[in-house]
Amino acid sequence: MSSSNFFKHLTLTSSYGFSILSRRFIHPPLTLLFTNIYPKRQPLIPTKISLRFSNCYTSVTEPQSSTLLSPYLSVRIRCRNDIAICIESIFPELEDVDVCISQAADSIGLKEIPSYEVKAGEQYDWIKKTQESFDPIEVTKGLWIVPEWKTPPDVQATNIILNPGLAFGTGEHPTTRLCLLLLQRLIKGGEHFLDYGTGSGILAIAALKFGASLSVGVDIDPIAITSARQNAALNNIGPEKLQLHLVSGNTSSPLIDEHKYVEKQTSCEKVVESEQEKYDVVIANILLNPLLELADDIISHAKPGAAIGLSGILSEQLPYIMDRYSPLLDDISVSEMDDWACLSGRKKTILTGG
After folding, report:
1. Are residues 84 and 154 in the same domain?
2. Domain count, the chain
3. Do 112 and 4 belong together in one domain?
4. Pick from 107, 133, 159: which residue ends a domain?
5. Keyword S-adenosyl-L-methionine on this protein (predicted)?
6. Rounded to the nearest 5°, which phi and psi values hold at 101?
7. What range does the domain containing 31 cover?
8. CATH number where 164 lies
9. Are 161 and 234 in contact (CB under 8 A)?
10. E-assigned strands of 33-105?
11. Are residue 223 and residue 129 in the same domain, yes or no?
12. Which residues have C-beta within 8 Å of that of residue 22, sequence separation ≥ 6?
């Protein structure tokens, strides 16, 4: 049984999509496709799932405030111990939980419906609860990620003020930390930086705070672009310093022709094509399969000799990335944290093929 696939289908049947895993509160969007409950059992991520480039979030409409303040049903689903202790999912008060879980089980060919408990909950302010779960994070000495609603513990430090909203990138995940530490080493001053799959914009903002002269963030999720723009404003960074572009969700060609527009309900700017060989530093903190499929495109936006960072992968997935990027990069090195990895190197001046 794949508990991650079960959870993916379960949240598609729930109108809330709020979930708790191992007692850690998270608040994904309504139709969250959570593919990494136990990622060690998934060396490859399915390529057909329409995800933004960074872990797990889809392009969806944000929940209404009335939904977030409604009574609810808390459902605890028991899993095999070697996969996950339990899954807790939140449903609207009138949702037919039996049908939802049955459909989720059927959708992945589960022979037996897992046992579960249902409890009624009172009206709850989920946004407040979510905010309470985030505290300032010290990535390294002198570098803090501070939620908008918290006071920076060290006002003299480099403080990245963040309201993650529905986009990935709170600074808590090891891959985000690995990328921040890599950026801190790479940025010397005046660089042009490309954040390939920007999410909350945390890396693009950090690059500017470290001394880059320009950051460009691209993403296929309009919610991520909106979140990144808001976070840039929280850090007093204007569009002349941090440019944000909504790009095509076609994984074979993520950066599409200039002057084309997409019709979205958000106020995202037009989709533009990123210039080739423009950037001094490029980081893609996304997922394994996109990193493999989009390798040539990721590399194409870097200048010859530019620094490249690749993350969003487990340590055990490194051989796939190493094999794909070795023809494209020199001076490859790897940093790891809590079973997650970040590979970095320099774009080869003369590429040997891919």
Report:
1. no
2. 2
3. yes
4. 133
5. yes
6. -70, -35
7. 1-133
8. 3.40.50.150
9. yes
10. 72-78, 86-92
11. no
12. 84, 85, 86
Q: Is 299 helix (H, G, I), strand (E, B) or coil?
A: helix
Q: What is the dihedral of CA 146, 147, 152, 158, to 10 degrees?
A: 30
Side-chain-facing half-sphere of 21: CA atoms under 13 Å: 16
Rounded Cα–Cα distance for residues 343 and 318 (Å): 8
Single residue among 92, 114, 133 that ends a domain in this structure: 133
Give the pLDDT confidence score for residue 195 in this predicted structure: 96
Same domain, 96 and 210: no
Task: Decide: 137 and 145 in contact? Cβ < 8 Å.
Answer: yes
Instruction: Mark residue 259 as left, alpha or beta (left: phi above 0; alpha: psi -120 to 50; beta: remaining).
Output: left
Other CB atoms within 10 A of residue 257 CB: 10
β partners of residue 140: 143
Question: Of the candidates 128, 125, 26, 8, which has an alpha carbon nearest to the alpha carbon of residue 67?
Answer: 125
For 40-60, how does the pLDDT look when each residue is reduced to its tens digit (9 = 90+)? 333 333 333 222 323 222 223
Tell whether pTM > 0.70: no
Q: What is the mean pLDDT of each run of 10 residues along the chain (354 residues)?
A: 52 42 28 30 33 29 47 80 70 84 81 85 67 85 92 95 72 91 97 95 97 96 91 96 86 35 35 68 95 94 96 96 97 96 94 54
Task: Report the sign of the C-alpha dihedral through residues 127, 337, 5, 1, in that order.
Answer: negative
Q: Find the distance separating the first CA and the last CA of the chain, reported in whole Å.
A: 35
CA distance 19 to 22: 10
- At residue 209, what are phi and psi to the nearest 5 degrees? -65, -25
The tokens describing 341, both together, are 């990895």
Eight-state DSSP code of residue 141: T
Residue 186 DSSP SS3: helix
Tell me the per-residue pLDDT of 151-202, one tens digit each, with 9 for 90 and over. 999 999 999 999 866 556 677 889 999 999 999 999 999 999 999 999 999 9
Q: Which of 293, 275, 279 is nearest to 354 (CA)?
A: 293
Q: Closest Cα to residue 18, out of 59, 72, 95, 98?
A: 72
Mark whether 127 and 157 lie in a shared domain.
no
In a domain, 55, yes or no: yes
Q: What share of the chain is helix, strand, coil (3-state, %, to 5)?
A: 25, 25, 45
